[in-house]
Amino acid sequence: MKSKHLTGDQLLAALSALSNPHRLRVVAALASGGRNYVSQLAREIGISRPLLHLHLQKLEQAGLVTSQMELSADGKALNYFEAADFAIELTPAQIAAAATTLSTNSDN
């Protein structure tokens, strides 16, 4: 995801996803440590797996992380996540351009 091509809705989704400290920690852990599976990532960040799943879902919906299900050597399914390649530039001009493409006029 590159910022020059973000619609208003995509920009809102990305900013909303990044507005939570747990989600910032998730992106930071994946950016610095590379791809990781949910259980290990939950241990590293210090949150429960169910809570991590909720945060990962929000980040994935915003296009900030990607996931891939893989089988381990013992046949266990592991869902690996990694940080997506994204850059978000926030300038008044970028915000003005994105605002023209918003699908909703709500203020929430």
UniProtKB/TrEMBL annotation:
MF GO annotations: DNA-binding transcription factor activity
CDD domains: HTH_ARSR
Pfam family, one: HTH_20
Domain of life where this protein originates: Bacteria
Domain HTH arsR-type, residue spans: 13-86
Protein name per Swiss-Prot or TrEMBL: ArsR family transcriptional regulator
Species, as recorded: Duganella callida
Taxonomic path: Bacteria, Pseudomonadati, Pseudomonadota, Betaproteobacteria, Burkholderiales
